[in-house]
Design goal:
The chain has helices spanning about 10-20, 40-50, 65-70, 75-85, 100-110, 130-135, 150-155, 185-190, 250-265, 270-280, 290-310, and strands spanning about 1-5, 30-35, 55-60, 90-95, 120, 145, 160-165, 180-185, 200, 220-225, 230-240. With about 300 residues, it is an alpha/beta fold.
């Protein structure tokens, strides 16, 4: 099983929704969404999973974003009410970050009929493992998402999911110019041998979270692919006219042109790749958010095909 962690920003959500609507998301993939903003995009995305009968894990104590602040605004009341109702659906796996407030979160969930053995818990800090042990005790959550490190493996044993941020983050997009391709992950090959129920990462976005975007000097497109040994690698396609922030459409065309030329030898055929090729051939600029959406969609479809091919 694969558990990609995505923040609930607009284009991450749209990527998930389109994967569901186009029926390219495997049942072997359970996205973990950390809501960061109360919005109709969020509720529509969750609703698409419910209608399709697909599982999605929703983090109920988000640690980043403006969800808590948004929930207090009267203008968000309708979307917030729908989001709360959605949590009762069987397609939703209630999920919590392990924090010092974990016990209060689990007790509140229990009052609403959500038992601990149906929860997904994410423990990402060694400081909080003791809070996990104290609160969970001998219970067995449905999934425990943990880093692949000894302190976590030794103390959190049942139903473990390996979580590693594999995205090779650079300070600037232009820094990818000299890195045409590099190792991304082999977790999908070995997670069962290492005693895990599944594997998790932050797709091609990375764990780092920023509230605001900015106009980049360079446009970079990140595409994962399997090599001849089924190891995941990631290729980077970077624009050339990177002296200032002007003309992002030209920058996109330069990066997309490199992707299109490269793919003539790799022959990747996913919805995301076809969208990149269509935009390049039509000389249109979809915007940087859509670029991220296409890359995520490609990653999820690629993993869906792999998992459906090996799933027992």
């Amino acid at each position: 099983m694969y558990f990609p962690i995505l923040r609930g920003r607009q284009f991450e959500l749209l990527a998930l929704r389109e994967c569901v609507s186009k029926n390219i998301l495997s049942n072997q993939i359970i996205p973990i969404v950390e809501p960061v903003k109360v919005s109709s995009t969020y509720t529509k995305t969750v609703d698409s999973f419910i209608k399709a009968g697909k599982l999605i894990a929703i983090i109920r104590n988000p640690q980043v974003g403006s969800w808590i602040k948004d929930s207090k605004r009267e203008s968000n009341a309708k979307n917030l009410q729908q989001a709360c109702e959605q949590l009762k659906n069987s397609s939703i796996i209630s999920s919590f970050y392990v924090t010092p407030n974990l016990e209060a979160c689990i007790n509140l969930a229990a009052k609403n009929g959500v038992s601990i053995d149906s929860l997904l818990l994410l423990c990402t800090s060694p400081e909080y493992v003791a809070h996990y042990e104290k609160t969970v005790g001998d219970s067995r959550p449905l999934y425990n998402v943990i880093p692949d490190k000894g302190d976590f493996r030794r103390r959190i044993r049942p139903n473990r999911v390996m979580c590693v941020d594999h995205f090779p983050k650079q300070t600037r997009n232009i820094d990818y110019s000299d890195i045409e391709t590099e190792f991304f992950s082999s977790d999908h090959l070995y997670y069962e041998d290492d005693g895990y129920k599944g594997f998790s990462d932050y797709s091609v976005v990375g764990e780092e979270y920023s509230e605001t975007g900015f106009a980049p000097y360079a446009v970079a497109i990140h595409i994962v692919y399997f090599d001849e040994k089924n190891i995941l690698r990631i290729a980077h396609f970077v624009s050339d006219s990177n002296d200032d922030i002007s003309d992002p459409a030209r920058k996109f065309a330069e990066a997309a042109g490199k992707l299109v030329a490269w793919n003539k030898t790799i022959n990747l055929d996913t919805v995301g790749i076809r969208e990149f090729e269509a935009a390049y051939n039509a000389q249109t600029y979809p915007g940087l958010g859509v670029v991220k959406k296409y890359s995520i969609m490609h990653h999820l479809e690629l993993m869906s095909r792999y998992l459906d091919g090996v799933a027992k």
